[in-house]
Amino acid sequence: MSADLKTTAPNGRENVLTSQEEQAKVNEVRRLIGPLPDKSSIYCSDASITRYLIARNWNVKKATKMLKETVKWRAEYKPEEIRWEDIAHEAETGKIYRSNYIDKHGRTVLVMRPSRQNSKSIKGQIKYLVYCMENAILNLPPDQGKMVWLIDFQGFNLSHISVKVTRETAHVLQNHYPERLGLAILYNPPKFFEPFFTMVKPLLEPKTYNKVKFVYSDDLNSKKIMEDLFDSDQLESGFGGNDDTGFDISKYAERMKEDDKKIPSFWTRLNSSSAAPHDAPPLDSIKINSDSDASDNEEKDLSPAHGMDAEIINTDQMVNQGDRNDTADRH
């Protein structure tokens, strides 16, 4: 845990959380959640609980409610059981894939090319997105808890816009993968995309919205963002780098199949600190709207400042410190 963490109070002053206070909040969330079955217990590590607390500005009741909802979602959706064969058809065009390089901060990079959409099934698209998120997390280094999205808009047109998909995507990512996004780079978005982005802004939480950067290949200032984040020899030529290898579905399929083999051991890696008791209650008995999730009016939300750079740096530091203390679980 970090030595001191900052939140922003309603009066605009910063409240500093010591490591002891932070741990106390983590312990309180764990107490309110209660005993859990094995996989849920592994998921609810200190590092994971810390991410939910940061997402809810260290409000214990709100973080607990959010985490309970994720626990139930994971029990029903079973994201850790999705395998390459289940989503291979969605991946064929390279619309989303984990790159074979990381950024200079050690963060996993997910490349997204919305113009290569090959499916009309919202369910299928979300399932593939969840698979990609789980795979990206599986491949995060022990000292890193976040990832970068590189979104390439080459060939993008109005037919590729779907408010329904955007809404469902935002819901899954914000509610069930909090504090996993370090930065989203929108590379060469067309002019007509800006009004659309303004329209969907209400669907995004301020923290998520503030992590989005627009980058244009003909703008020297925004190009510097890429230079500061990536090694140009590793970065794909589509994003201004020197690597012109391109996406190869056959090679990518082999990479993902190898990664799939790691998943079972990841989710059976119980230890004395995370093991759940054998008499843990079934997930259906976990009440999301229980007494522990009292009205938001009982505890004021500590809203963060909306400065993008400050927000990215502060949350990155907080999560990374938490992750370093719980490398056994990257979820």
Report on the structure:
The chain has 331 residues and is of the alpha/beta class. It has two domains: 4-79 and 278-324, no CATH class; 82-263, CRAL-TRIO lipid binding domain (Phosphatidylinositol Transfer Protein Sec14p). It contains 13 helices and seven strands. The protein has helices at residues 19-33, 38-43, 46-55, 60-77, 84-91, 122-138, 163-176, 193-200, 206-209, 220-229, 249-260, 263-266, 308-324, and strands at residues 4-8, 14-18, 96-102, 108-112, 147-152, 181-187, 212-215. The strands form two sheets. A five-stranded mixed β-sheet has the order 3-4-5-6-7, with helices on both faces. A two-stranded antiparallel sheet has the order 1-2. A hairpin with a 5-residue loop joins β3 and β4. The longest helix has 18 residues, at 60-77. The two termini are 16 Å apart. Mean pLDDT is 79; it is low at 1-5, 7-14 and 270-329.
